[in-house]
Amino acid sequence: MDSGHLITIQHLKKHFAMGAGKFTALNGIDLTFDKGEFTGIIGPSGSGKTTLLNIIGSLDVPSEGKAIVMGKSVGDLGAREAAMLRKTKLGFIFQSYNLLQVHTVYENVEFPLLLLGIDAATRKQMVKDALEWVGLTDKTSSRPAQLSGGECQRVAIARAMVKKPEIVLADEPTANLDAANSHHILQTMEKLNHEFRTTFIFATHDEKVIGYIRRKIFLEDGKVAKDELITKS
Amino acid sequence: MIRFLFKGLIRDKHRSLLPLIVVALGVMLTVVFHSWLTGVISDSIEYNARFTTGHVKVMTMAYADNLDQMPNDLALLNADSLTVALKKQFPGMEWVERIHFAGLVDVPDRSGETRAQGNTIGFGIDLFTPGSAEIDRMNIRKSVVEGRLPKQNGEILISNELASDMKLKPGDTISLISSTMYGEMAIYNFTVAGTVVFGTSFLDRGTIIADIADVRQALNMEGASGEILGLSQKGYFDKNEATEIAAAFNRNYNKPADEFSPVMKTLMEQNNLGALVDYSSVILTVLVAVFLLAMSIVLWNAGLLGGLRRYGEFGMRLAIGEEKGHVYKTMIYESLLIGTFGSLAGVALGMVFAWYFQHYGLNLKGMMQNATIIMPTVFKARITPVTWFIGFIPGILSTLIGTMLSGIGIYKRQTAQLFKELEA
Q1: Residue B422 pLDDT
Q2: CB neighbours of B399 closer than 8 A, spacing ≥ 6?
Q3: Alpha carbon of B423: minimum distance to chain A alpha carbons (Å)
Q4: pLDDT, averaged across chain B
Q5: In a domain, B288, yes or no
Q6: Do both B100 and B204 map to the same domain?
Q7: pLDDT at B380 exceeding the cut of 60
Q8: Which of residues 324-343 of B touch A (CB under 8 A)?
Q9: Beta-bridge mates of residue B210
Q10: Distance of residue B339 Cα from the nearest chain A Cα, in angstroms
């Protein structure tokens, strides 16, 4: 099953029941992603970006075809194996941050490490490092409600990156941010991509994001319309 | 991880404080309701037992057949020796002789002419024998509102309402007009020592209480008693105990062919109290069950809503890699914690109210002016062993079931669907 690629998508289709019929969100996708990519899946609403990201993230399963993530076919994974894949190899960044509101910045970032069963001393160092990467060491005791949108998204990045995953999936990460914060966020992720060779895959239609990515995959009506590598000078 | 979840629980008032308050209130209401209902029903039965029926009562068969008429011409002869035998044979009961009689109270003016008259129902009880528990058994000491307890023969207590109607006060003399055991007219003078309020409309309308020796003299009943009451030393009516004692007594003493032979009847065989006891038991069970169900639904829903509200959080936790089973388990542990602490708080609060109602009760005298059965007008709660744990049924079980049901959604939904709820 190991194709040499980090992620291999083969003839992927995803249908959703809609009334008596069905809606096809993905209609025969073939793609590969390699380590260290900084890729954007671009398309209008309803083009299937989030569905593709969900399947890669083992949050959903294909209706047809295969999605092989780090050698594991997502459709064949049991709930426990899928959870293990997400816990150890994947990081998620969401449009609306999805931080635990009653927990501090430190605790939000620490949460994935608790699931991994890492000891307290190591955990403390890893959280400290992650908060340094995103420049939030002075906000460890703050609660999400006390932070700006940009800061919340930086916490979300730290939470996704703290365990140093192979892949980070970011669904519209700048949709709720102003331009300055968007650039700050994107620069942070770009830096982490360079530093750790973490693969970043964005679902976006934000021009600011598109300006940073090195590969653009355009989706239209559930199909890949264009797959374009950007060579930056 | 436990510490992390505990912090979340403590900080999120929607997850901790509010459910805790809802559970505590639900449990408190359950405890108060159960204790109060138990108290009301038990008090009604116990009042009847102490005043008229005993837990068991020995009479002649003929007397038993005409019980409503208080037929002292059919009273037990040589009652003292029978009482001694009963005490010896059934030491688990307290045995007391009583004469229950009806008559007319005549109040003379200064010239000896009748100033006022009224119907009365009287109790001849043992007021003066040292160690007699009758005064406390009928709660007479606390019922005296004017004057004092009788200190010597010839003194009586009279219900405050009757005294008021007839403008009687302590120290006044009255004449009891009734009939003797042999059917002759009896007139006997008593001095009013005090007036009493029993808190029971039926008794408060017109009752006199005299020492049994005086009543024997007045009604020419030397050595006789209308009734011998047996009251369990347990302090409450035990149906099995009473039935066994009555059966044992009747085997030895009752001769069906002799209408003057003694017969023992349990509380349930008198004054239709059997139906009351049975109905009370059923009604108590049904009411408590209905109330428990209602409280369970409330707490179940609280658990359900608490779980549904957090679907978004669960979606995020699952995305980060937490297993569904682990999320579900943490929900259950949280609800157990909330249920347990809420139930403890609810039981504590409920017990405070139950204790208050047990001591002071709820006075419903105004609603019971025309009551014809002996019932307390002050309804008091009773704390029983069941009171201590009944609140835990809705408190823990229903909260847990609500949470478990809401948690099923975690398994039924695709993780991505939970996620959409998170984004919503």
Answers
A1: 47
A2: B19, B23, B299, B300, B302, B303, B335, B338, B339, B342
A3: 7
A4: 86
A5: yes
A6: yes
A7: yes
A8: 324-325
A9: B124, B156
A10: 21
**What's the burial of A117, exposed, middle or buried (CB within 10 Å: 0-12/13-18/19+)?**
exposed
pLDDT digits (tens, 9 = 90+) for A67-115: 999 999 999 999 899 999 999 999 999 888 889 989 999 999 999 999 9
Paired residues of A66 in beta bridges: A10
User: Considering B187, B210, B236, which residue would you say is the last residue of a domain?
Assistant: B236
Query: How many residues comprise chain A?
Result: 233
Residues B156 and B287 in one domain: no
Q: How many CB atoms lie within 10 A of CB A229?
A: 9
Q: Mean pLDDT over residues B63-91, rounded?
A: 92
Can you count the helices (H) and strands (E) in chain B?
Answer: 17, 12
Are B65 and B94 members of one domain? yes
**Helix, strand or coil, per DSSP, at residue A18:** strand
Q: What is the mean pLDDT of residues A188-202?
A: 92
B408 interfacial to chain A (CB closer than 8 Å): no
The answer to whether residue B269 sits within a structural domain is no
Helix (H) or strand (E) holding B374: none
For residue A39, which of A59, A64, A56, A15 has the smallest C-alpha distance? Answer: A56
> DSSP letter string over B45-66?
HHHHIIIII-SEEEEEHHHHHT
In Å, what is the CA distance from B329 to each residue of A159, B5, B336, B403?
A: 23, 12, 10, 10
Residues B217 and B74 in one domain: yes
Tell me how far apart the alpha carbons of residues B128 and B125 are, in angstroms, rounded to a whole number.
Answer: 9
Within a 10 A sphere around the Cβ of B374, how many other Cβ atoms?
Answer: 22
Q: Which of B322, B416, B422 sits opposite A83 (nearest CB)?
A: B322
Q: Tell me what the pLDDT averaged over chain A comes to.
A: 91
Angstrom distance (rounded) from CA A17 to CA A20: 7
Alpha helices (runs of H) in B195-264, residue ranges in sequence order = 201-204, 212-218, 239-253
Position B41 in a domain: yes
Spell B131-144 as b/e; 16+ CB within 10 A means b: eeebbebbbbeebb
Asked if the Cβ–Cβ distance from B320 to A87 is below 8 Å, we say yes
B255, part of any domain: no
Local structure of residue A191 (DSSP, 8 states): H
Which pLDDT tens digit goes with each residue over B270-307? 877 787 777 777 877 887 778 777 777 777 777 677 77
Q: Quote ipTM for the complex.
A: 0.87
Q: B104 with B176: CB under 8 angstroms? A: yes
Q: How many domains is chain B built from?
A: 2
Tens-place pLDDT, residues A127-161? 999 999 888 999 999 999 999 988 999 999 999 99
For residue B420, what pLDDT band results from cuts at 50, 70 and 90? low
Lowest model confidence (mean pLDDT) among A60-64, B117-121, B200-204, B221-225: B200-204
Task: Indicate if B62 and B192 belong to the same structural domain.
Answer: yes
Of B312, B321, B416, the CB nearest to A112: B321
Instruction: Spell out the domains of chain A, with CATH numbers in brackets.
Output: 7-229 (3.40.50.300)
Domain holding B147, by residue range, is 56-236
Residues in A closer than 8 angstroms to B416, CB to CB, are 54, 59-60
Same-domain check for residues B131 and B32: no
The mean pLDDT of B35-62, rounded to a whole number, is: 88
The DSSP 8-state label assigned to residue B189 in this structure reads: E
Q: Are the beta carbons of A96 and B423 separated by less than 8 Å?
A: yes
Nearest residue, CB atoms, A60 vs list B11, B320, B416: B416
Residue A9 contacts B, CB cutoff 8 Å: no
